[in-house]
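Archive maintenance. Older records in this collection stored only the sequence; we are now back-filling the structure field for every entry so that each record is complete. The fields below show one back-filled record exactly as it appears after the update. Entries are processed alphabetically, and Sterile alpha motif domain-containing protein 13 is next in the queue.

ARCHIVE ENTRY
Title: Sterile alpha motif domain-containing protein 13
Organism field: Austrofundulus limnaeus
Length field: 95
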Amino acid sequence: EKANGSVDTKSPVENGQLPDPSNWGVTDVVNYFKATGFEEQATAFQDQEIDGKSLLLMTRNDVLTGLSIKLGPALKIYEYHVKPLQTQHLKSNAS
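Back-filled structure field:
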């Protein structure tokens, strides 16, 4: 039930929370983006050897310009996936 009108961006959620990617390898990152519907763009993370720790360090600019991904998908990847994963990671490690 998405009563607040939020859009379901096909995020593989664990127990109502986003996963913590800090221990992910490159393959885990690639599989995450394939699972969220970015099949074509997932290979860019492979090419650039982005693992979970790298993913958590990425800036908006890194995603938009460093991965050679088209702007539309890159914006969605950053806003709906990279940023929320980073926020979740910071929250879970703050406690």
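Update note: The helical segments are 26-35, 39-47, 52-57, 60-65, 71-94. The radius of gyration is 13 Å.
Entry marked complete.
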